[in-house]
Amino acid sequence: MFDIVIIGAGMAGAVLAERFAAHGKKVLVIERRQHVAGNCYDELDDNGILIHKYGPHLFHTDDAQIWEYLSRFTDWHVYHHRVKAFIDGKPVPIPFNLNTLQEVLPRSLANKLEDALLENYEYGKKISILELKQSSNKDLQFLADFVYEKIFLHYTEKQWGLTPDKISGAVTARVPVLIGRDDRYFYDRFQAVPKRGYNVLVKNLIDHKNIKLLLNTDFHDVMELRGEKIYLFRRKFKGRLIYTGQLDELFDKKFGKLPYRSVDMKFETIATEKFQSAPVVNYPNNYDFTRITEFKQIHPAATPCTTILREYPQEYVMGRNEPYYPIFTEDAVAMYKKYADELANFQNITAVGRLAEYRYYDIDDVVRRALDVFNDLND
Ligand SMILES: Cc1cc2nc3c(=O)[nH]c(=O)nc-3n(C[C@H](O)[C@H](O)[C@H](O)COP(=O)(O)OP(=O)(O)OC[C@H]3O[C@@H](n4cnc5c(N)ncnc54)[C@H](O)[C@@H]3O)c2cc1C
Hints:
379 residues, 3 domains, binds flavin-adenine dinucleotide, Rossmann fold, alpha+beta
């Protein structure tokens, strides 16, 4: 009855469902949560403020094709994201730039450092703190240490639950300093959030007569892998299975559990019109949470109160919280490879998306990946 079965109604599953349905295929989408949109899911809270249930999601891309494709299913609220970090008792712009410099250091030192940066690097360029550290200029070396300590080190410790010695030098090397005053978090050509939210965008994607959606349904409730065959509702399924869930779950964790980091998302409504000076404020030092998001600053709402989200990173425990970020240890990468090799035995299963491919994808990356997979399969 169905040509294509898709596990997961997140962005990857929804784009593939839309593409196959538009090309005349009958598609069944199976989603274990009680809503679509995966981790992009948003909803109006009791105060009429659009909140992102799984953490703030800001859409940004340089890919005009993706922008145009998604624009068929949503209008946009143009939104350029800004983030501050709470440093030495006050919120200052990040990524660290010339404005940050002036806000966190005494004027004479800030001016001296700004002159040194402008003498050594091109205006508008992003440089890494590793590059600064390797400079022969002592002041620039000081700046590299300052940014590392105040913005990066403790945030990373909290986010990943690591001690400083376990934090990889390769990651440190990428911490940027912007030689400029552009306070935006992203520099992509297209930046926005869906006007009525991601949930509506995804509903529009899968609103097609050829698509049937089953919510509150786990893959294992209706499908089974036996030998190298797939069974759907106990009957052999000869179509294509697109899987966007965790690959270790598909194979009953036979090679072990892929490690993830999770986050406890704590929402709070506060009786004030505006809570903080930027949509997101990071708390690298002190406190147990990593950041606070104020949703009204992303989706404007005329309300006398405001809703904020504090994020507390924590260990991922299956069934208790959500697998947000893959932890790329050598063992984990090797374990994922075993699952990927196992998957290769199934000619008609394709793994797509952040869980199934065990990698961090932004929304535009996952839409690009879904469109590319569709083009390959539809050849
Ligand atoms: C905290 C956080 C913040 C982020 N912020 C941004 C941002 O600002 N900008 C940006 O571009 N990207 C952001 N991302 C990335 C973004 O969330 C992903 O790119 C996107 O959600 C990936 O879509 P997906 O379909 O691959 O996965 P998901 O959204 O996880 O969807 C997979 C779906 O499959 C379902 N599923 C899994 N297993 C089964 C099963 N066995 N049976 C049935 N259903 C199943 C799940 O319930 C889920 O709904 C963020 C990610 C996180 C974790």
